[in-house]
Amino acid sequence: MKTIWTLCGLIFTLCFTSCNPEVKEVAKRPNILFIMSDDHAYQAISAYDTRLIKTPNIDRIANEGMLFTNACVTNSICAPSRAVILTGKHSHLNGKIDNRFPFDTTNVTFPQIFQEAGYQTAMFGKLHFGNNPKGVDDFMILPGQGNYINPRFITATGDTTITGYVTDIITDLTLGWLEKDRDPEKPFMMAYLHKAPHRPWWPSPEKFKEFNTKEFVEPSNLFDDYANRGTAAKTAEMNLLTHMQYPHDSKIRPATLEEMGNVQPEVPGIPRGFEGPYGRMNDSQRALYDPIIDLINKDFQTNWPSMTDEEKMKWKYQRYMQDYLGTISSVDDNVGRVLDYLDESGLAENTVVVYTSDQGFYLGEHGWFDKRFIYDESFKTPLLVKWPGTIEPGTVNTQMVQNLDFAQTFLDVAGIPAPDDMQGESLVPLFKGEIENFREAVYYHYYEYPAVHMVKRHYGIVTEDFKLVHFYYDVDEWELYDRKKDPQEMLSVYDDPAYASTVEELKIKLEELRVKYKDSDELNQKYIDLYDEQPGS
Question: How many structural domains compose the chain?
Answer without folding.
Answer: 2
